[in-house]
User: What shape does this take?
Amino acid sequence: MARLAQTAGLTDVQQEILSTVRDFVDKEIIPVATELEHRDEYPQQIVDGLKELGLFGLMIPEEYGGLGESLLTYALCVEEIARGWMSVSGIINTHFIVAYMLKQHGTQEQKDHFLPRMAAGDIRGAFSMSEPGLGSDVSAITSKAVKDGDEYVLNGQKMWLTNGGTSSLVAVLVRSDEGHPEGTAAHKSMTTFLIEKEPGFGEVRPGLTIPGKIEKMGYKGVDTTELIMDGLRIPADRVLGGVTGRGFYQMMDGVEVGRVNVAARGCGVAQRAFELGVQYAQQRHTFGKPIAQHQAIQFKLAEMATKVEAAHAMMVNAARKKDSGERNDLEAGMAKYLASEYCKEVVEDAFRIHGGYGFSKEYEIERLYREAPMLLIGEGTAEIQKMIIGRRLLEEYRFQS
Assistant: This one.
C-alpha cells in the first residue's frame, strides 16, 4: 500500500517540488524540531533553507520572480512542512496570505514594489485583523485610520500576529470612516494598510511598537505578538488597492487561502501523529506481543488512517476549487473544520498509543499534543466555520415554496 494522503493528478513539476520539500523536512526539520520547540527558538537555519528552495515565492507569479505555482501545490507543501514542525508552516502561511492579497488586490505600483522582494524572501509578510477584545467578531474592530493630508494616522492595538517580530511588512485591517457616512455597515468602512517596518521588537518605526513574544502552550519557535499603533503615519499609497472601504473583503479573500493552509497543517500534523503511533505500536510489546497485534490498537490505527485520508481529500478539494477561480468559502470552511478536529483526535489517539511515554518530552508526540489545539482556533474557530458552512448551504439549497 502507498503512503497515506496521496494526491492524484499532479504534474511532474508538482511531484518534483513535493519530493524536494519532503526530503528537506525529513533531513532538516524533523531531527531538530523538538529541541528547537522546547527552547522556543526561531528556526533561522530552516527558514534560510526554505528561502534557498524558493518556497517564499511559491505562489507569486513568475513575472515578479516567483514560481507561479497553484494554491494546491502550496497547500501540499504546507502539509509536508507541518508534518515536520507546524511552527515552520506558520512562518510561510502569513507571508503567503499577504502576497496573495497583494497579487489579487494591490495596485500595480504595490505589486512591483513588494512582490519581487517577497518572492526572494527578503521581505517577510504578516497580517493582522484581531484585537484584544475582538475574538471572532471582525466588525467590532476599534483600531482606526484618520486622513491627514496625503497620509493616514493610525491608532489602536492589534493581537495575535504570527511573524509579528520577524516580518518587515504587515497588512493591518482598521476602521476608516473617511468617505463613509455615519450608519455605513461596519464591514464597508474597513481598510487594509500595508505597513513597512524593521524586524524586531520594541518601537520598530515611529508610532509602531511590537512589545514582544506572547508565551504560548504550543506553536513555539514562530513569534506571535501584539502590535500597537500610536500616531502611526502611513502614506495614502499604502492603502491596499488604493481605495478605502475594501479591506474587509480583501482580508476575507486572504483568509480563505489561510483556511486551506490551516487545513493543510492539520493534515500534516495528523499524518505525523499517525506515523509515530503506527511505528510505536509495532515496537512496544505487552502480553508477549507487539501492541499493534492487539485488536483495540488496530481499531485505533484504522480510525486514525481514515481520518488522515478524509481530511486530506477535503483539503485538496478546497484548494482546487480556489485554483479554478470559483468561490470556495464553503469548501475551505469544511476542510478547515474537519482537518483541525480530526487532527486533534488523531494526535490524541497517537498519544494514547504511546501510553505513559507520550507524556514525556523525550517523545515527539508530546510536542504534537500541544500544537494541535492551535488549529482549532486559527483562522476561525469551529463555530465560525459551521456558521459559514450553514449560511452557504442555505444559499445553495434555498427552499422555493
User: Anything to note?
Assistant: The first strand starts at residue 125 and ends at 128.
